[in-house]
Amino acid sequence: MNETIRGLVAKFGGLPVAIDQIADDADLYAAGLSSFASVQLMLGIEEAFDIEFPDNLLNRKSFASISAIEKTVNIIMAGRKVA
């Protein structure tokens, strides 16, 4: 999952640095992720993992880092399995 998320951040994030230079817990906004890019990233993640972000997880914290995105995707996928 981590590599998929990294690929999506590289594709949609528009970051000025290579994704392999960004640690899992690095602040993506500090690295250059814009609000517009985060929306594009969200759409890419939804498509890649066949999920939909609920309103309560559509926030800056969910996209703050690679680790945060992975945690958020896991939460959504776990909730989907229960439903």
Attribute tags:
single chain, 83 residues, mainly alpha, Non-ribosomal Peptide Synthetase Peptidyl Carrier Protein, Chain A, 3 helices, globular
Q: Beta fraction of the residues?
A: under 5%
Structural classification = mainly alpha
**Range of helix content:** 40-55%
Overall body shape? globular
Largest sheet: none
Chain-averaged pLDDT: 93
Number of helices: 3
Domain unit count: 1
CATH H level: which superfamily? ACP-like
CATH class: Mainly Alpha
How many E strands?
A: 0
Blueprint of the fold:
Elements: H1 2-12, H2 35-49, H3 66-82
Helix pairs in contact: 1-2, 1-3
Can you walk me through this structure?
The chain is mainly α and 83 residues long. The chain has one domain (2-82): ACP-like (Non-ribosomal Peptide Synthetase Peptidyl Carrier Protein, Chain A, Orthogonal Bundle). The protein has three helices and no strands. Helix 1 (2-12) crosses helix 3. The protein starts with a helix and ends with a helix. The model has no long low-confidence stretch (mean pLDDT 93).
